[in-house]
Amino acid sequence: MTAELQVFRLPDLGEGLTEAELLSWLVAVGDEIRVDQPIAEVETAKSVVEVPSPYAGTVAVLHGEPGQTLDVGKPLISVAPVGISAPGGSGASEGASGSDATAGAASSAPAGAVDSPSGGSSSAAAETYRTEERAGSGNVLIGYGTSGGGEARRTRPRKAPAAVVVSAPETSVTELSLPAASRVPGKLSAVISPLVRKMARDHGVSLESVPGSGESGLILRRDVEAAIAEPRKAPPAPAAAEAPAGSLDSRTGLAVASRSAVRGVRKAVAANMARSRSEIPEATVWVDVDATALLELRAGLKKAGDQHVPGLLAFIARFVTAGLKKYPELNTRFETLPDGSQEMVAFDGINLGFAAQTDRGLVVPSVRSAEKLSARGLDAEIRRLTAVARDGKATPAELGSGTFTLNNYGVFGVDGSAAIINYPEVAMLGLGRIIDKPWVVDGQLAVRKVTELTLAFDHRVCDGETAAGFLRYVADAIENPGAVLSDL
């Protein structure tokens, strides 16, 4: 019996992400899998996540190889339903061709069926795609599920299916016999991948004029790239074109040692920082703070036998949440609406982000509803989030939901920084290293533990008085921690 393969495409990963790198397969061709079983590990610009399958059955095809970058909407895995053997059985191979096409997504049809002039074969493909989009467990990724949770509903009777060409026993996928440039207006989109749509839109390419090289005339990324490059074939390459590694750089005259693609966390950080600099008119205020009393408080708790004394970052996080309650303008978001009008969005709560350096780059996990936590609670959550971020297991929600960021760059041995605000937030507080400095106490010169606090803020949401008031509040709390830490 010929199998009707269920093709699971790389799902929407959220946060505007359109691609992911395939790190490893967690299943192999021929394996029996269940619904919601992890099938692959992928790395996005945010984190490393395991992708669960919305289908149960036998693994027929793995579309892609570890190290390959896959676009959202491209086939990830093909599964033969429970009780039906996959075409070709174990003959299907990992990384099989077809990751750019919809092979296996179409339904089987009785041999000898005739292709109708009304486009019945295309209609069948369209119905298959709609069915596939509606199918699934609803649990593809945390926060991003498949669109349906049960049986797909057919909105209209399916027309007579077209003739199919059943592959030889060693081939793993049944293919539709369709013209290469066929279209199904209003039913089967000629473009599935959102990345392909965006690429065409950004380069002014009309998809109506692009011939698709995929099945049923599906327009693939390479088709749009060819359309973009077409007008540029005539002129010769510019003399200042980038040279490959090992050649001389035209501007400096130095040999090019290497070239590496900007991707993953570095790509996301670059885009976010560039947008912050281009859109936010930021200003910066700073102040030196005597942290001696706070350090003595921690030392006293340890001496008293407290086994879980919060770290300095947790104490300062507690001061920050108290300060944001007093100066809520710094816990907002500035938005420009499609009609050109602007709004300041205030939040009922504080998601406190903190910068964490990992092997994959700098990420900013956030403590949700941080204003409800004591210093001990903040310390526990900061430690947990730091661990999952460094393991690459933080969820998109944990990495993208902050409303204010605390950055402890003092751990790198520096005193201050002209920080770039973590877009789309409106402020960031930086903490420098704590060192011995001469300080005047009660008219006498003394050696004290001093740190520098730096606040970068969006001048659109508040003026210097508000920013200075918040910064002074946090500084006073560090110098006299008892009152703010009454609940510890």
Strand content: 15-25%
Structural class: alpha+beta
Q: What's the number of extended β-strand segments?
A: 21
Q: Which value, in Å, is the CA radius of gyration?
A: 29 Å
Number of DSSP helical runs: 9
Following the backbone from N to C, one meets helices and strands in this order, namely: EEEEEEEEHEEHHHEHHEEEEEEHHEEEEH
**Fraction of residues in helices?**
10-25%
Please indicate the count of domains.
2
**Between the first and last Cα atoms, what is the distance in angstroms?**
68 Å
Apparent shape? elongated
Mean pLDDT: 76
| Sheet with the most strands, sense and barrel status | 7 strands, mixed
Low-confidence stretches: 88-189, 233-242
Could you explain the architecture of this structure?
Helices cover 23% and strands 22% of the residues. With 488 residues, the protein is α+β, with helices and mostly antiparallel strands. It has 2 domains: 6-227, no CATH class; 266-479, Chloramphenicol Acetyltransferase, CATH 3.30.559.10. The strands form 6 sheets. Strands 11, 14, 17, 18, 19, 20 and 21 form a 7-stranded mixed sheet that branches. Strands 1-8-6-3 form a 4-stranded antiparallel sheet, with no helix packed on it. The protein has a 4-stranded antiparallel sheet with strand order 5-4-2-7, with no helix packed on it. α6 (312-326) packs across α9. It is elongated and about 85 Å long. The model is unreliable at 88-189 and 233-242 (pLDDT under 50).
